[in-house]
Amino acid sequence: MKAIRVIILALSIMMVSAASAQNVYNSSGSRCGTIEDNGTIRNSSGSSVGKFDNDGTIRNSSGSSIGKIDRDGTIRNSSGSSIGRLDNDGTVRNSSGSSIGKVESDGTVRNSSGSSIGRAQGIPRERVAAYFFFFPFY
Questions:
Q1: 3 inside domain
Q2: Has residue 11 been placed in a domain?
Q3: Looking at the domain assignment, is residue 106 inside a domain?
Q4: Which of 51, 58, 90, 91 could join 67 in a cystine, given CB atoms 3.0 to 4.6 angstroms apart?
Q5: Considering all CA atoms of the chain, what is the largest pairwise distance in Å, rounded to the nearest integer?
Q6: Beta-carbon count within 10 A of 136 CB
């Protein structure tokens, strides 16, 4: 009986873990990775390729900081220089302030021409903007 409880607990944990990852899709609708609730970024094979920390730090697969998302939407490189920003309406801007795309409220990601380049529902906009426009992990 104790063994059955342990198995049920293990299966429950696995189900919760699997449910906490949101898929990221490319322009052709193919899944190109996932971003888990804890910030772990995985490629389409399931390998960890990076992480978004709670403080906004963006890390590569070896754990090195490669950038940061500030609370005001500014996106910085590893040197701390601003490389872009995300406006409140989802518009993504480069360091010159020019619009380079948009993350729609439904998770659709568009380039500056308005064409869909991907989709990522249920993931914070700032993470989606960093993923598609500044630190492509796919």
A1: no
A2: no
A3: yes
A4: 58
A5: 64
A6: 9
